[in-house]
Write a structure and sequence with these properties.
single chain, 370 residues, Nucleotidyltransferase, domain 5, binds 5'-O-[(R)-(carboxyoxy)(hydroxy)phosphoryl]adenosine, binds zinc ion
Length: 370
C-alpha cells in the first residue's frame, strides 16, 4: 500500500524527545469507541501510555445486539473527547505523536468511517503518518505489547465475529488454516446469553453463571469432533442449548447456571479438539511451536485453561494478552500501527474503510509491488 514520505526521524517523537514511536490508535469497528496511545521502543518492546474505552453497552442493550446505525452515531458523539482524554492521560499532544492508526476494517462500515476519517484529519492537520489497521491484525499482534512474542506463531482468533486459526508466518504475513462454517464462538456465547436472558454482551455473563453450575448436567454436542481440518461449527451446540432451555422452562437459577456450565464445557472440549487439528496442520510448516489466542473470547478463564493444557501436552508455548486487552480496545490498534510504522508500512489518505477485509488479503497487499 502506498505511503507518504516523512522527513523527520520517525523514531524520535518531536516534543518529548524520547526515543521510540508514540502512536495514537482509534478503534470504532463495532460497539466500542476507543482511543489509546502506545509507545514502541527501538528494541521492539511496547508500553501503553493511555487506553480509553467507552462501551456502547447501554445503547444496544434494549435490542439484544449491536445496531449499526446507533453504533455509528455513538462513535461520532464520543470519539473526539476520547482522543483528547487519551492524549491528556499520556501527557502528550498531537505534535508529540509519531503517527496515527485507525481500524479500517473489517467491521460495521459506518463506525469504521467515523474512526478512519478522524484519523485522516489528524494525520493531515499534524503532518503525521497514517496507518489504516486491519482489526484482526490488531488482535493478532496484541500479545506483543505485553510479552516479547512476535510471529511466527499459530494464532486462534476468537471474537464476536470471528473464529479462525491463522498461521502467522512472519510479521504482517498470515495464512488462514481454518474457520467457522456458521457462528463465531463469541456469537454463540452471546446467543446463549440472550436465550437465557443474561443481558448483552453475553460472554462474560455466561462465564459468571457457569462458575457455579454443573458442567455435566447436560450432554451438549461437541461439533466437528475428530474432523481433520481445523474448522468450527457452533450453531448445533447453540440449538441444543435452546431446545434444552425450552424443555425446562420456566428456568430456575440453578438451571441457568447448569446450562451455562454445560455449554461452556462443550465449547472448551470443542476448542481442545480443534486445537489438536490445528497443531497437526501447523506442525507441517516446521515453524516454532508457539500458540497465541486473541480476541474477546480469549478473556474466558475456562477456555484459556483448556488451551493452556493442550499446549503443554503438545509441546507448544502458550501466550495470550491479559484479559483486559482481549476485547476491542485502542491500544491494540495503536500497537499494530506502531509495528507497521516501524517497518515503514504507512498508508495514504485515500486508504478505504472495508467492511470485509480477511487477513489473507492483507498479506496479498503486502506481496503486491506498489
Ligand atoms: O474482540 P471483541 O471485543 O469484538 C469483536 O471483534 O467481535 O469480542 C467480543 C466477543 C463477544 O461475543 C463477547 O461475548 C465475547 O467476545 N466475550 C467472551 C468473554 N468476554 C468477551 N466470551 C466468553 N467469555 C468471556 N469472558
Ligand atoms: Zn475485535
Amino acid at each position: 500500500m502506498q505511503g507518504r514520505a516523512f522527513g523527520k526521524d520517525i523514531f524520535m517523537s518531536m516534543e518529548q524527545k524520547k526515543p521510540g514511536l508514540a502512536v495514537l490508535g482509534i478503534e470504532t469497528s463495532c460497539d466500542e469507541t476507543a482511543a489509546a496511545i502506545v509507545r514502541r521502543e527501538p528494541d521492539g518492546s511496547g508500553t501503553i501510555l493511555s487506553n480509553v474505552v467507552r462501551t456502547q453497552f447501554k445503547e444496544h442493550a434494549p435490542y439484544g445486539g449491536v445496531v449499526p446505525e446507533i453504533a455509528a452515531r455513538a462513535h461520532v458523539q464520543m470519539l473526539d473527547s476520547l482522543v483528547r482524554a487519551a492524549l491528556e492521560q499520556a501527557h502528550l499532544n498531537f505534535r508529540s505523536l509519531s503517527g496515527v492508526a485507525a481500524t479500517a476494517g473489517p467491521g460495521l462500515i459506518g463506525g469504521l468511517l467515523v474512526g478512519l476519517v478522524t484519523a485522516k484529519a489528524i494525520a493531515l492537520v499534524h503532518d503525521l503518518p497514517l496507518m489504516a489497521v486491519n482489526h484482526l491484525e490488531g488482535h493478532a499482534l496484541t500479545v506483543g505489547l505485553t510479552e516479547a512474542v512476535d510471529p511466527p506463531y499459530l494464532l486462534l482468533l476468537v471474537s464476536g465475529g470471528h473464529s479462525q486459526f491463522v498461521q502467522a508466518n512472519a510479521p504482517f504475513h498470515y495464512k488462514k488454516l481454518g474457520g467457522t462454517i456458521d457462528d463465531a464462538l463469541g456469537e454463540a456465547f452471546d446467543k446463549v446469553a440472550k436465550m437465557l436472558d443474561l443481558g448483552f454482551p453475553g460472554g462474560p455473563a455466561v462465564e459468571r453463571f457457569a462458575k457455579d453450575g454443573n458442567p455435566r448436567r447436560f450432554a451438549f454436542p461437541r461439533p466437528l469432533l475428530g474432523r481433520e481440518s481445523p474448522d468450527f461449527s457452533f450453531s448445533g451446540l447453540k440449538t441444543a442449548v435452546r431446545q434444552t432451555a425450552m424443555s425446562l422452562a420456566p428456568l430456575g437459577r440453578k438451571d441457568v447456571r447448569d446450562l451455562c456450565a454445560s455449554f461452556q464445557a462443550a465449547a472448551a472440549d470443542t476448542v481442545r479438539d480443534r486445537l489438536k487439528a490445528a497443531f497437526r496442520l501447523y506442525d507441517a510448516s516446521g515453524l516454532p511451536k508457539r500458540f497465541v489466542v486473541a480476541g474477546g473470547v480469549a478473556a474466558n478463564a475456562a477456555l484459556r485453561t483448556a488451551m493452556q493444557q493442550e499446549c503443554e501436552a503438545a509441546g507448544y508455548s502458550f501466550h495470550a494478552p491479559p484479559p483486559g486487552l482481549c476485547g476491542d480496545n485502542g491500544a491494540m490498534i495503536a500497537w499494530a500501527g506502531a509495528q507497521r510504522l516501524a517497518a515503514g508500512l504507512t498508508d495514504s489518505l485515500e486508504a478505504p474503510a472495508r467492511a470485509r477485509w480477511p487477513l489473507e488479503e492483507l498479506t496479498a497487499d503486502m506481496l503486491t509491488p506498489a
